Amino acid sequence: MAVPKRKLSKARRDKRRSNVWKLTLPGFSKCTQCGELKLSHRVCPSCGYYKGKEIIKKEA
Ligand SMILES: [Zn+2]
Fold it and tell me: How far is ligand 1, taken at its centre, from the CA of residue 34, in Å?
C-alpha cells in the first residue's frame, strides 16, 4: 500500500479543505463584457453578449 512520505502540515491540509480555491461553481465564469457571473459557453444573461458579440439585444 502506498503511504504518504511526509506529514501534511495543518496549513496545507486546511487550505485544501477550505473553500478559497473553489470560489465559483464549476461551469461558471465571469462575463468578459459586464463582469457578471455567467455559465461558460452560454450567452450572458445580463448583457446578452457571447464571444464579444451582442447575441441578444437588451433594451436599456
Ligand atoms: Zn455580460
Answer: 4
- Give residue 14 CA to ligand 1 midpoint distance, Å: 34
| Set of cell numbers at residue 27 | 461551469
Residue type, 27: G
Q: The pTM is what?
A: 0.45
Q: Which residues contact 49 (CB under 8 A, 6 or more apart)?
A: 31, 32, 33, 34, 43, 55
Cα 43 to ligand 1 centroid, rounded to whole Å: 8
Interval between CA 9 and ligand 1 midpoint (Å): 41
Q: How would you write the pLDDT of the chain (60 residues) with one tens digit per residue?
A: 899 999 999 999 998 888 777 776 778 888 888 888 888 888 888 887 788 677 777 655
